[in-house]
């Protein structure tokens, strides 16, 4: 049911999707939807937000959890770009941030949690690289990780608007070049 709701929202937008639409797509009736989501549409949207948030982090593994060398950072960068290139306008984080967040405070909490987890992974990678001497200790790991996540999101927003991953690629390259050369 959640996957059906995700597909409907990606295709038509959150405002246009009803429980009937989700039921049709999933082959379930309203009574079954309310059995699993007694809070109705709001609870289903929260489940969609969590599903999308989990997917964002899952799509970047194993690379995101292994940022211990410049080659590993490059593999992560390439995985991020490739995944967003493949997803295009059907980006899970785009749905989460631009669609679900505006409609439910619980979804905003899921997004905050996702961004915090993502930033944590990047920060740990920066700290590991600082430990090996590949990134200067003068770099604030939390600020750099936050800037990197914000830069990715800016690139993704432009990709959603233009269909081109060029800005996403450029911003990732600039951020990684900064980390590599700031010694």
| C-alpha Rg (nearest Å) | 18 Å
* Strands, total number: 0
How many H/I helices?
9
Overall mean pLDDT stands at 87
Fraction in helix = over 70%
Morphology: elongated
Helices and strands, in order, run as HHHHHHHHH
Instruction: Tell me the major beta sheet.
Output: none
Strand content: under 5%
First-last Cα distance: 50 Å
- What structural category characterises the helix and strand content? mainly alpha
Low-confidence stretches: none
Question: What does this protein look like?
Answer:
The protein is mainly alpha-helical and 183 residues long. It has helices spanning 2-12, 19-26, 30-36, 41-59, 70-87, 92-100, 105-131, 141-162, 166-181. Helix 1 crosses helix 4, helix 4 packs antiparallel against helix 6 (92-100) and helix 4 runs parallel beside helix 7.
Keywords:
183 residues; mainly alpha; 9 helices; elongated
Concise summary:
By secondary structure, this protein is mostly helical. It has helices spanning 2-12, 19-26, 30-36, 41-59, 70-87, 92-100, 105-131, 141-162, 166-181.
Please write out the topology.
Elements: H1 2-12, H2 19-26, H3 30-36, H4 41-59, H5 70-87, H6 92-100, H7 105-131, H8 141-162, H9 166-181
Helix pairs in contact: 1-2, 1-4, 4-6, 4-7, 5-9, 7-8, 8-9
């Amino acid at each position: 049911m959640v996957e059906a709701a995700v597909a409907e929202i990606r295709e038509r937008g959150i405002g246009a999707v009803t429980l009937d639409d989700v039921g049709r797509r999933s082959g379930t009736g309203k009574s079954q939807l309310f059995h699993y989501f007694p809070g109705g549409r709001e609870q289903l949207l929260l489940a969609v937000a969590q599903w999308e948030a989990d997917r964002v982090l899952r799509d970047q593994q194993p690379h995101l959890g292994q940022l211990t060398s410049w080659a590993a950072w490059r593999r992560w960068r390439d995985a991020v770009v490739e995944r967003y290139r493949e997803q295009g306008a059907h980006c899970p984080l785009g749905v989460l941030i631009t669609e679900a967040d505006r409609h439910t405070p619980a979804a905003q909490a899921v997004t905050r949690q996702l961004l915090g987890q993502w930033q944590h992974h990047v920060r740990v990678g920066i700290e590991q690289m600082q430990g090996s001497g590949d990134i200067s200790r003068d770099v604030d790991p939390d600020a750099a990780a936050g800037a990197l996540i914000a830069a990715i999101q800016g690139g993704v927003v432009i990709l959603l608007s233009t269909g081109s991953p060029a800005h996403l690629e450029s911003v990732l390259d600039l951020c990684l070049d900064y980390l590599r050369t700031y010694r």
